[in-house]
Hints:
The complex is a heterodimer.
Chain A: E1 2-4, E2 7-9, H1 16-25, E3 28-31, E4 36-41, H2 45-52, E5 65-71, E6 77-87, E7 90-95, H3 100-111, E8 118-121, E9 126-132, H4 136-141, E10 156-161, E11 164-170, E12 179-185, H5 188-202, E13 208-209, H6 212-221, H7 257-265, E14 271-278, E15 289-291, E16 297-307, E17 312-320, E18 329-334, E19 337-344
Parallel strand pairs in A: 3-13
Antiparallel strand pairs in A: 1-2, 3-9, 4-7, 4-8, 5-6, 6-7, 9-12, 10-11, 11-12, 14-17, 14-19, 15-16, 15-18, 16-17, 18-19
Chain B: E1 8-9, E2 14-19, E3 22-27, H1 29-35, E4 38-42, E5 49-50, E6 55-61, E7 65-69, E8 74-79, H2 82-85, H3 89-92, E9 100-104, H4 116-127
Antiparallel strand pairs in B: 1-2, 2-3, 3-9, 4-6, 5-8, 6-7, 8-9
Amino acid sequence: MVDFGGWDMPVQYSGLIEEHMAVRTGVGVFDVSHMGDIQLRGPNSLAAVQKLLMNDASKLQIGQAHYSAMLYPNGTFVDDVILHKLGENDYLIVINAGTREKDVQWVRQVLGGMSGLHITDVSDYYTQIAIQGPKAMATLQKLTSVDLAPIRNYWFTWGQVCGLYNVLIARTGYTGEDGFEIYIPSDEITSARVWAEVLAAGQEFGIVPCGLGARNTLRLESAMALYGHEISDSLNVWEANLGRYCKMEKGVDFVGREALLEVQQKGGPAKRLVGLEMIERGIGRDGYPVFSLEGERIGEITSGSPAPFLKKNIALAYVPMAFVELRTEVAVEVRGQNVRARVVPTPFYKRAKAAAAAPPTQA
Amino acid sequence: MSYPENYRYSKSHEWLLLEGNAATVGITDYAQESLGDIVFVELPKLGQEIEVGATFGSVESVKAVSDLYSPVGGTVTAINEALNGAPETLNTAANETWIIKLAVQNAATTSPLLSAAEYEKFVAEETGH
Lengths: 363, 129
């Protein structure tokens, strides 16, 4: 067990590689109850999320979610989030565990003066369980009367799961794999029962419980950002290469927009996040320095690890713009030795698209 | 976890088998268990001189990297190159999988070493159970 943002969580259950592979090839289950949740309700809730978050929430339909972030006025990150539109005037923001208090405080600071808005920290109401992998749907389908196949990626619905009513069932995750996250009441008896039922339902598909270790390697293979690593209060949206989720022209002057505009007008960021693949023997890890082949120190790895499914040593790193081109070679200092690495496309791993979202029905 | 009686153990979790001036070094069952899935072993060169207590390589799991310290000083006479292709053998058979062999100059000079029973006690204290 390790302390993770105040939560006692296992790094691994049966073994990191086994857990990682189960999610890529079968199914794995994660207890992600440490994630925080903030609900924004009231007639001004859309205006509130539009000011608070960088993505364009006006594009969301009820039952749809998207990746977004809340920024400081200088364009750096308070946190990255998943925003769910629960209903008209009703939004759920899923935030990180380690940043929960800071996030809640920030939301109140930015939006506290707004009328027609009710802000609630609902983190403790939910146990969040992530069922991830190509067999995630088959596993969860055994526990719910809701037809899961029509739920599209980053959409959600409500329904009965394990006998519980009105469970939020979202087709989301942090693994780069197909999967679902369910939000159930957080009391211990219910949580333990659902956890056991998910494990039993997935048994025929070889389900394993997965810890923080596999969660990290899975998200890294998929090049998803982790707060405190790829994003932080000293890195901005352009540097983090998350511009596709930042809607400058959404018509709302969201917090951070002005600073980001200024960076754009001054020719863009000086450094950017890239994917690296080690081409010589050696594993680049978090915090290891990156050098040019001429020996100049140019940056640092934010997350680096062996990639269990890809069977390569991969990393995310910040490097100056002169080094972001694909196939650029750099050197990573691995415990005193320079090991060559190459800039590669991200995500490192991308799952094959399913042939059809829903199975064909008989006329 | 098991700790053979004929080995001696360092507090940095290596085992040592000393037969005359021939030393064999590996990592303990406890070491492999705490590291998790081992994916990479950095070995010294043949003929390399290693001082007692000095680093001679490293073992890396998916999550972590750990230096290897030699419990004795000497010249490397063999390295287990099979570990380059199958580092996970250290997980499945830590006691049977040697990492290096050394020709020892002075078998009496070792780093402070523990017997199997002492090491087991040391590990229990270190993990708090």
